[in-house]
Every structure is written in structure tokens, then in C-alpha cells.
Design a protein that fits this description.
This protein has a two-stranded antiparallel sheet. The longest helix is centred in the middle third of the chain and has 16 residues. The protein is α+β, with helices and mostly antiparallel strands. A hairpin with a 2-residue loop joins strand 1 and strand 2.
């Protein structure tokens, strides 16, 4: 079954969330603050590192994609060929 490609576009922070056209009284910014404020969690730390690299390379104007949206597939095996690797260390001590 092929549902086709879902195109994404870069969001601002002012969009309001809705269900079936009815506003929910909460914004996309509020969701992002709730979901992404813990920058030291494993998943967010990796995404932050990806963003910093994209910003340094000047390619951060698009939308991050977690899977291959053009073929609607993801990798079947771990393969990480790259010219650059980023290692981020969290050095906080309680």
C-alpha cells in the first residue's frame, strides 16, 4: 500500500493546534516547549547536535527528516558512512 509522499514545511511558532477544524486553545510553540525543552535527554541531545552541524554548514533552513520521505522507507541495517562525525559529551557532575 502506498499512501504517497507527505510534504512538510517549516513551521513558525504561532500556529494553533486544532482537531477537525476546532481550535484546541494551545499553540505549536507550547507543544515544542513541552516536548523539546529537556536538551540533555539522549534523543534531544542528538537532535541538537544535528541542528548545530546543519547551522554551521548553512543548511538549517529546511525541515529535519527522520526517514527517507522520497521513498517512504527507512534503513534496514545500521550504516553510517559520513565525512564528518560529531561526538557530544555531557560533562555535568551532580
Amino acid at each position: 500500500m502506498n499512501f504517497g509522499r507527505i510534504d512538510t514545511e517549516r513551521k513558525s511558532v504561532s500556529e494553533q493546534l486544532h482537531a477537525n477544524g476546532a481550535l484546541l486553545g494551545v499553540s505549536l510553540q507550547q507543544f515544542w516547549q513541552w516536548a523539546g525543552s529537556d536538551l540533555i535527554s539522549n534523543s534531544q541531545r542528538g537532535i541538537l547536535a544535528e541542528f548545530l552541524v546543519a547551522h554551521a554548514l548553512g543548511v538549517d533552513s529546511g525541515v529535519r527528516t527522520e526517514w527517507d520521505a522520497s521513498t517512504n522507507t527507512s534503513a534496514t541495517e545500521a550504516d553510517r558512512p559520513a565525512d564528518v562525525y560529531v561526538f557530544a559529551e555531557h560533562a555535568h557532575i551532580d
